[in-house]
Amino acid sequence: MTISIDGKVHGATLQIKYGEPFPRVYSNREIVSTDYGDCKVYITDVGIPEWSNRFIVKVFIKFYITEITEPSEYYLKEKRRKKTGLKLIEG
C-alpha cells in the first residue's frame, strides 16, 4: 500500500539507457519531473517499449508520486499561489 501525495495517477515517458534497470509494475523508482522536481514514485503500469536511438529504449509508465525529495521552482511557485488563494478575475 502506498500513499499518493495528490491522489492522481501521473504518466511519463522514460528513456532507459543500456545497463539501467527497466521499470517494473508495482515497484518504486526515483524520477525527475519537470513539474514536480526529483520524486519517488510507485509504478502502476508499464507500456510497450520502443527503440528510439542506439541503446536507448522509450517506455510510457503510469505512477503515483509518493514523495517529492527536491521540488522544482515551478512546483514551489504553484504551491505558494494555491496557499495564498489568489485568483485571476477578469473585469
Please explain how this structure is put together:
The protein has 91 residues and is mostly beta strands. The chain has one domain (10-84). The chain has one helix at residues 73-84; strands at residues 10-17, 28-33, 37-46, 50-53, 56-71. Strands 1, 2, 3, 4 and 5 form a 5-stranded antiparallel sheet that branches. The longest helix has 12 residues, at 73-84. The mean pLDDT is 88.
List the helices and strands and how they pair.
Layout: E1 10-17, E2 28-33, E3 37-46, E4 50-53, E5 56-71, H1 73-84
Antiparallel strand pairs: 1-5, 2-3, 3-5, 4-5
Give descriptors for this structure:
mainly beta; 1 helix; elongated; single chain; five-stranded antiparallel beta sheet; 91 residues
Q: What is the SS-derived class?
A: mainly beta
Number of helices: 1
The H/E string reads EEEEEH
Largest sheet: 5 strands, antiparallel
| Alpha carbon gyration radius | 16 Å
Fraction in beta strands: over 45%
Alpha carbon gap, first and last residue: 47 Å
Low-confidence stretches: none
How many structural domains? 1
Short description:
The protein is mainly beta and 91 residues long.
